[in-house]
Amino acid sequence: MNEKKKLGLGGKILIGLVAGIVVGAIFWAAMGPEAAGAFTAKYIKPFGDIFVNLLKFIVVPLVLLSIMDGVISMGDIGKVGKIGWKTIAYFLVTTAIACIIGLIVANLFKGAFPVLELAEDAAYEAKTSNLMDTIVNIFPSNAIAPMSNSSMLQIIVISLFFGCGILVAGEKGKALGELVSSFNEVTQKVMGFILSVAPYGVFALMVWVVAAQGPKILGSLGLVLLAAYIGYAIHVVLVYSMSVKIFAKMSPGTFFKKVFPAAAFAFTSTSSVASLPVTKECCDDMDVHGEISSFVLPLGATINMDGTAIYQCVAAIFLAKCIGIDLTLVQMITIVVTATLASIGTAGTSGAGMIMLAMVLDAVGIPPTYIGIIYGIDRLFDMGRTALNVVGDASCAVCVNEWEKEMDAKAKA
Ligand code: ASP
After folding, report:
1. Does the beta carbon of 353 lie inside 6 Å of ligand 1?
2. 217-275 residue pLDDT tens
3. Number of the ligand 1 atom closest to the C-alpha atom of 311
4. Could you tell me if the CB of 24 is within 6 A of ligand 1?
5. Is the CB of 272 under 6 A from ligand 1?
6. Residue 305 CB–ligand 1 contact under 6 Å
7. Is the model's pLDDT at 122 over the cut of 70?
8. With a 6 A CB cut-off, is 357 part of the ligand 1 pocket?
9. Which atom of ligand 1 is found nearest the CA of 271?
10. Among 271, 385, 391, 393, which is best to mutate for testing ligand 1, by the most ligand atoms less than 8 A from CB?
11. pLDDT digits 0-9 by tens, 301-310
12. Using one digit for the tens of pLDDT, what is the confidence trace for 178-209?
């Protein structure tokens, strides 16, 4: 029997990427940059725009439901509050550090990033907003408008409120909780459909980018990828080694050795959620109490994404430079806040972080269409960032486990 190997989405996207580069380079060589840019912008890029539109369409239900589901998965607020606060504090602090690392690395690389001349949106002006306005605007004054305007920060606040409301409502909230879980599952599937057309979207966008820019853009993509991986490496060495050493009193060498299977699985599957069973096993191997790992890990797979946060910061700085926007300090702080929140809103599935990047870009006035420039190589970013996300979840489980052990010992003394 002739066994045909099925090509996964990652493989198809890679083919779309390479084909897009080749076809774009042919246009560029045959017509010259200006004519090739105009032609592909008119006839080929629109197919990529369809894909980007679909991504933008799914992002609202995706965030709304995955965060509500994450809160609901905590169970009873009172019972899990104790562990919950420690877990969330760990998640928030490490993710904010991840953003800062991402911003520093990206700023060091900024000089080498290109300024592209993309005819479209040339007259686009950067939005400037001050920090206080940004904070006030996180809180919605209307329940419906944030959904229709895709105001992601407001949507996150709404989901947190309703998630907590469902928990506090107890028995009466249960039906809605189940509905949210089921709706969340369906939304994930719809996202799967949309991602399945990604290879064609990638092809169209790559043809346009390479035709308009010439193959020199490829060197820049390598550079932004390198910046992200340097950020990932610094975060692992700085934050996780230190936190497991200081809080869990575990040697970083032992931790990394034991967590390696989960990291490797995440690297290839690019899904924190799919990696959960392996991550759980690694935590069992590190003697993390089952009650703690089964609470911290699923929550982490839904809301704790340090790798994603680093990627979003690096990508935002890169794309800002590409379209000639010089970001102010307030905009950088906005990136830290939105990337932290966006990474929380990112579902633990393949490619989800790139979808949420739209929110970070929007917050600092970069048109999300430009995600197309780096979308083709998203899988390469995703492998590293998912591995980091999963290692972050395991490090949290190990630390919370130790804190609880210490509390129990104190209570007994
Ligand atoms: N793939 C990542 C994860 O599952 C999410 C992302 O795309 O950033 O953790």
Report:
1. yes
2. 777 788 899 999 999 999 999 999 999 999 999 999 999 999 988 888 788 778 888 78
3. 8
4. no
5. yes
6. yes
7. no
8. no
9. 4
10. 385
11. 878 999 999 9
12. 999 899 889 878 877 887 887 888 788 888 87
Helices and strands: H and E segment counts in the chain: 19, 0
Residue ranges of domains in the chain, CATH in brackets: 9-412 (1.10.3860.10)
CB of residue 362 inside a 6 A radius of ligand 1: no
- Ligand 1 within 6 A of CB of 40: no
